Amino acid sequence: MNEHTGWLLDFYGDTQDGLIMWLLSDSGERLRLRMNFPVTFYAAGDFNTLRQAWRFLQGKDVSLARTRRRDLFTGERDVLAVTSPNPANVSKIFYELSGIFPSLDYYDADTPLSLRFIARTGAHMLGRCRIQLDGETVTVIEALDSPWELAPASLPLRILELSPDVDPIVQTPGKLTFLYEREEYSLNLDPLRPLLIILKNILRRFDPDLILTDYGDTWLFPKLREWDASFNPNRDRSREMLVRDANSYFAYGQVIYRGTQTHLFGRWHIDRKNALLFREIGLQGVLELARVSGIGVQEAARKSPGAGITAMQMLTALRTGVLVPVVKQQAEGRKSLANLIHADKGGLIYQPIIGVHKHVAQIDFASMYPSIMVEHNISPETCPEHRRREQGKEDVEDGIIPQTLRPLVEKRLALKQRHMELNPRDCRVKALKERSAALKWLLVVCFGYLGYKNARFGKIESHETVTAISRELMLQAKETAEDMGFTVLHMYVDSLFVQKDGLQEQGDFKPLLEAIHTQTGIPIALEGVYKWLVFPPSKRDKRVPVPNRYFGVFQNGEIKARGIALRRHDTCRFVAATQLGMLKIMAQADDPVEKLLDAQIFMEGQLRRLRAGKVPLDDLLVAKKLSRELNAYKVPSPAALAAQQLQKQGVKVRAGMHIHFWYAGNGGKVSEVSMKQINIPRYCRLLELAAEEILAILQDLSA
Amino acid sequence: MGRTVTTATQQLQETEAMLSRFRRMLRRSDQYLLDGLFAQARLHIAAISHTDALLPFEAALLAMLLEQARHIATLEHEIKLFKGQGDE
C-alpha cells in the first residue's frame, strides 16, 4: 500500500473504466491515478413505464435498483436507480433511455463527474488530500483542507506562457514568445520546424502544469495541429486534445460569442483572450472559482460564473441527498393581475438630483442580494412561512440556495476585509483582489439564476421576493438616513448617495452605517466620500436626470465614473484618455467648475493633435460587438463592413464577436490603415461628444 | 427589471406617445411646458412604480403636482426673502 499527500489538480472519466485523477504530490511528482467510480442516475414516473425502462436496461452493462430519493419540490419519491461502472457510458445510456421513455423524470444524469467525485469523497478541486494506492488505483482518499480556507496552501504550479507578437485576427503573427521559469525568448514562426521541436522539448523537459496563452484557443493550438498532425500537448498521452467549436448565444440581453476552445488532459490550457473574466479575475481568480465551485480549472476559466453557481447548487444537492433534475420542472405559479403588478419589479432605482454636490458619501450594501437570500432563507423550495426574518423563526433549516451561498458570502466578506486591511503595496493584495472578484461574480449571478428560465433550482417567485425585500431595505435605509438629517441624493439597487452639512470625513458617516445595519440586518459599507460628485442630466432633456450616470472624485483623489464614454467598451483609447484627462484636471479642485477652462483647453489641445494626425493609430482602434450574424444586416454598420473584410481574409465571423477596426472613409477598416484614410471628422465628433458629457452641466452652472 | 408587466418608465413613455396629437396642436411655448411636466413626473418614477397602480398615470399626475407645489414653495420663499430685504 502506497500513500501520498498533495493537491488534486484535475479529474475526468477514463475512456475505458473509472476515473483518472491527477495529483501534484508534496514531493513534486505529477501522478496520474485511477479510481473505480461507478456512477448512478435516476428515473421516476409512471410505474408501468418504469417497468418497461427496467426491462430495456437489463441487457446493458448497468446494475438496477428500486429505491426512494428526495425531489426538492415533491419530496420523497420512488425511483429507478441506474448504476454504470464506467462513468464515460452514463450519458450514452441516459440519452438512449430518455429518447425511448421521454415521459419519465430524470435526475442526476448530467451532473459533471468532478461534482460527483467531490460530493462522494469530500475532497475538492485544487484541495490538499491524502491518498492510499493499490498499484495505480486509489483505494482511500482523505481531504486535508476545505475550499473555504481563506489562505489555502499555495500550489507550486509550473507555468508556460505562449503569446504571438500580434493579434492573429488583425495581422499574421511572425513570432511566438515563450515565457517560463523567468526565461523569455521569441522564435520566428517561419521556418516552423525549429519552433515545433523547441516547443515539444519544453513540454517534455519543463513539463508545465499550465499553458497560459494569448489566442491559444482560437489560433495557436488549431495552427499547431494543422502544421503537425501528431502534435499532442497533453500530459496524459492516451488522450487527444479536446476541441470545442465556437458558438454565439443570447444572454443578459446581448449576443455573446465564445471562440473555439482547446482543453488538455493532465495539464491545463487557458487562453487569456478567450477566458470570459480573465482580465478582471486573473489566474488566482480562476483557481478560486475552480476551488469553490468544483468545476475544472479549464472550464472555470472559460465558462460564465452562472455555470459556477449552478455547479455549487448541484454539489449542495448531491451532498444533502437531493435529486438534481435534468430539466427544470418549476413553472411560474398563477397569480392575480394586482399581485403580478406588485411582484414583477426589479431593484430600486431612484432619480438622482442633477448637479454638482460636495462631500457626498456613497454607501453600499455588501453583497446585498445574496445576503438577503441567506438572511431571509430564500430558496425555491422554502415557503414564505419558512422565510426567517419576517416570521421571526431563527431556527428554520436553510434551503438549498442559502446553504450554497452562506459560505460564499462569508468568504467573500472575509477576503475583502483582509485586502482592505493590507497596505495597497503589499504583494498579497493582487491575489486577494482577484480571488475576491471571482467570488463577487458568483454572488452577482446567483440572484439572476434564481429566476433564470433554465436554472435547475430556480423559481421566479423567489427571485421576485429578493427584489421586493431589497426595495424595502433600501427604503428603510433612506428613511433612517433622512431621520438622521441626511439628504439622499440618489439610490441605485444597493447603493445610496447621501450628504449632510458639516460631514465630510469617513468617520462622520459611521453612526449612519451602524443605524442602517441595525435596521436592515444587512451589513453596509462606506465606498468613500466624494470631494465632489456630479449627476449630469439626460442629453435629450436637461430637466431629466439619468440614474446610472455620474462622475466624481473621492477625497483621496481617486476618480469614479459611471455611464460616460470612458466606461464604454466601444470608446477608443484616445477618447477615453482625453475624457479621463479632463476629469483629472478637474479633480485637482474642490469645485470642478473652477477648472472648467483648463479642462476645455486640454480638450482643444487633444482635438488639435487629432486633426494634425499626431495620435497613434492604435489609440484610435474601436471595438464593437456584432449584434447579429453578418448576413442579417440590412444596412451594414462600420463594424459590419469591417467584419466583412475579416471574412474575406478567411476569419469565421460570428454574431457576438468583438470587431476591432478604425473609422476610415465612410466605413470601417480592420487592417493596413494609414492616417490619411482615417475619418478624422468622425473621431473629432466622438471626442466632442465625450467632452460634452462632462462639460455641459458645468458650463450651465458657471453661466 | 419588469419581465411581464410594463415598467412605469415605459408606461409614461406610452402615455406621452398617446398624447402626441394633443401636444402637436399646442403652441410651441406650451409644448415646452408640457414636456416639462413629463420631465417632472420622471423625477419620481421610482415612487410612481412603488404605488403598484394599474394606471400609474394618476400617480404621474400627482408627481407633476408635487413638483409644481415645490416650485410654488420655492417662489414663495424667495418672495418672502425679497420682501424682507425691502422692509429693511
Low-confidence stretches of chain A: none
Please tally the β strands of chain A and state the result.
27
Helical content of chain B stands at over 70%
Task: Report the biggest beta sheet of chain A as strand number plus sense, adding barrel if it closes.
Answer: 6 strands, antiparallel
**Chain oligomer state:** heterodimer
CATH fourth-tier homologous superfamily of the domain at 355-395 and 457-563 in chain A: B family DNA polymerase, palm domain
Radius of gyration of chain B: 17 Å
Strand line-up in the sheet with most strands of chain A: 20-21-19-22-23-24
- Average pLDDT of chain B works out at 90
Helix proportion range of chain A: 25-40%
How many runs of DSSP E, i.e. beta strands of chain B?
0
Largest interface: A-B, 22 and 19 residues
Summarize the structure.
The complex is a heterodimer of chains A (703) and B (88). Among the domains of chain A are: 2-143, 2-Layer Sandwich (DNA Polymerase, Chain A, domain 1); 355-395 and 457-563, Palm domain of DNA polymerase (Alpha-Beta Complex); 568-703, Orthogonal Bundle (Topoisomerase I, Chain A, domain 4), CATH 1.10.132.60.
What does this structure look like?
The complex is a heterodimer of chains A (703) and B (88). Chain A has 703 residues and is an alpha+beta fold. Among the domains of chain A are: 2-143, DNA Polymerase, Chain A, domain 1 (2-Layer Sandwich); 355-395 and 457-563, B family DNA polymerase, palm domain (Palm domain of DNA polymerase, Alpha-Beta Complex); 568-703, Orthogonal Bundle (Topoisomerase I, Chain A, domain 4). In chain A, helix 8 (305-319) packs across helix 13 (429-451), helix 12 (400-421) packs antiparallel against helix 13 and helix 16 (573-587) runs antiparallel to helix 17 (596-611). The termini of chain B are far apart. Chain B is flat. In chain B, helix 3 crosses helix 5. In chain B, 78% of the residues lie in helices and 0% in strands. Chain B has 88 residues and is an all-alpha fold. The interface between A and B is medium-sized, with 22 and 19 residues.
